[in-house]
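> Could you send the Coenzyme A biosynthesis bifunctional protein CoaBC prediction when you get a chance?

Sure thing. Input:
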Amino acid sequence: NFGRQRGGSLSARHVLVTAGPTHEPIDPVRYIANRSSGKQGFAIAAALAERGARVTLVAGPVTLPTPPGVTRVDVTTAREMAAACWAALPADCAVMVAAVADWHVAPAEQKLKKGAGAPALDLRPNPDILAELAARADRPRLLIGFAAETEQVVAQAEAKRARKGVDWIVANDVSGDVMGGDSNTVHLVRADGTEQWERLAKVEVARRLADRIAAVLA
Ligand code: CTP
Ligand code: CA
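Output:
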């Protein structure tokens, strides 16, 4: 697809993208989740593939079609997402867009019954896939995380970038109707400063980010 190409090509580059929520089961019929639709991550995978990258898209439970030319691996839980990411390495770049559940529980084998009283959920931390990826020997050369924030968006994203040891953080203002919607307000936080972006369609956020990635990797 040459029509869409802007800036450098990403051919011969492998990019890992995570997208969507994770679901953490509580019992056979219930789970912990979040409002991520997967739209932003899928749009990024599509934009990278349009530029010629080989893209592995590790997707949580979403109802979206696989973008053309993208290799998709479907997962449910954060621990499955971590394993799928490690299996996809090595990669030149990783864009971790997924809204990974921060906790899981040991699920009950049978459906919990309300007659037994409200169950206490014993929440245990999930692996931080992005932080673990940053610490690996086979860390991608360009490692990009998202930071979903509802307040002090850029300041929290800057702290998150340093704490997680990643190159760029896409600071995502998720107050309002971002989750599930078609547009997004993001800022690109790098070590040398922050680029403020206006509110854009998610597909346009994806194209701009692909531009920035291609400028580094091409
Ligand atoms: N992330 C991840 N694995 C997790 C949690 C988050 O890979 N278990 C990644 C997300 O995909 C995102 C980045 O880390 O790229 C930041 O996610 P976010 O939820 O904003 O940050 P947390 O570090 O989980 O902190 P908090 O939710 O407390 O703000
Ligand atoms: Ca989190």
